[in-house]
Write a structure and sequence with these properties.
about 250 residues; alpha/beta; five-stranded mixed β-sheet; about 40% helix; globular
Length: about 250
């Protein structure tokens, strides 16, 4: 009888501990920098095609509570490395980042880089780095650069800030820089939203298509990387990131 009571008590304690753990479980911290239309914080809401797509993946992972956290790019990179952020929502892959963070086996989507110039600018196509040498290019500090844009002869004006793509587009319009560099869809989105397409043209940079990944801290990867990869594979069979992207553009830009 005593042994039975002991077992019941032990079981009760374990159950209470398990319940306490669930009650006090920290939400998954998903950090992002402002990268419209992939991710942004507007009107008190976390918005964007990458946020919508991550929510689909999380539904399949069944992790429960997720907290999206908007941060400047440089700080976000630091916090993923220290474990203060569990997942970085949207990142390209390079050797330096792969050494610091845990990447899934497959990207959730892809992007191609592009530049926005004034419509009257003589440049019509970009076939190589040499086509970009005469111009001054605005871009985000510490952001990903594809191989063709790492040439030391290129002239960059780096900035930081919440609306960096829009800032650079306005600088192009006002003649302060020649070109704004970003993801093609981000340039189209910001130009449409701010009635700038009549002033600017957007040229894709062939050969710059890269995968987009949600990267994890070491601790998060140990717990969730495999389940994330499985959930992503399931989601991709029913909706691609490009489809999620197009849906977001249609509902956001009239």
């Amino acid at each position: 009888m005593k042994r039975m009571i002991s077992r019941v008590c032990t079981g009760g304690v374990l159950l209470l501990l398990a319940l306490a753990t669930l009650v006090h479980a920290e939400p998954l911290r998903v950090g992002y920098f402002r990268f419209p239309p992939h991710a942004m914080f507007e009107n008190g809401q976390d918005l964007g095609s990458a946020i919508d797509y991550f929510k689909l993946v999380n539904t399949n992972m069944k992790l429960g509570d997720v907290r999206f956290i908007f941060l400047p790019n440089a700080r976000l990179l630091k916090y993923i490395e220290t474990g203060d952020i569990d997942i970085g929502l949207v990142f390209a892959k390079n050797a330096e980042r792969a050494a610091r963070f845990k990447y899934p086996a497959e990207p959730f989507g892809s992007m191609v880089m592009a530049v926005a110039l004034k419509k009257k600018h003589p440049l019509q196509t970009i076939r190589s780095t040499d086509d970009l040498l005469p111009i001054t290019i605005g871009y985000l500090k510490e952001a990903y650069l594809p191989a063709m844009l790492r040439d030391e002869r290129l002239k960059f004006r780096f900035l930081t800030g919440r609306n960096w793509t829009l800032q650079n587009l306005l600088k192009v319009k006002n003649g302060r820089i020649d070109a704004a560099l970003s993801d093609y869809y981000s340039l189209v989105y910001e130009a449409k939203r701010n009635s700038l397409l009549q002033d600017l043209k957007i040229l894709k940079l062939d050969g710059t298509e890269v995968g987009l990944y949600s990267v994890m801290s070491e601790a998060c990867a140990e717990k969730h990387l495999r389940s994330y990869e499985a959930a992503l594979e399931t989601v991709k069979t029913s909706k691609t990131y490009n489809q999620a992207f197009e849906e977001f553009i249609k509902k956001s830009v009239k």
